[in-house]
Specification:
Helix 3 crosses helix 4. With 98 residues, the protein is mainly α. The chain contains four helices and no strands.
Length: 98
């Protein structure tokens, strides 16, 4: 993959908004996608989940765990999750703060 900038085109029926505002909205969307959804999928394997009965409950539990680790200040959620599984003191430290 080359490092050349690429043009992106977006189509919408909304009118009257500046390109600068559209750019901010689109970047905001991808910030959420890359900062939360991608991390949750790679760390908790959400897309590979085979839970078919009440999957929303499992999704909420994963989100709760993700939010606790982020609020604790963990930069690497995958490593923090692994550490919390193996280190009871670390897990209790996370829980005790909230």
């Amino acid at each position: 993959m080359d490092d050349e900038p690429r043009d992106r085109f977006w189509v919408s029926s909304a009118a009257g908004f500046s390109a600068k505002l559209w750019n901010a909205w689109i970047r905001g969307h991808w910030r959420i996608e890359n900062g939360s959804h991608h991390v949750r999928d790679t760390t908790f394997a959400e897309d590979a989940s085979r839970i078919r009965k009440n999957p929303d409950i499992a999704a909420r539990l994963r989100s709760f765990a993700y939010n606790l680790l982020r609020a604790h200040g963990s930069e690497n959620i995958k490593n923090a999750r692994w550490r919390a599984a193996l280190d009871l003191d670390f897990l209790l430290d996370i829980i005790a703060k909230y």
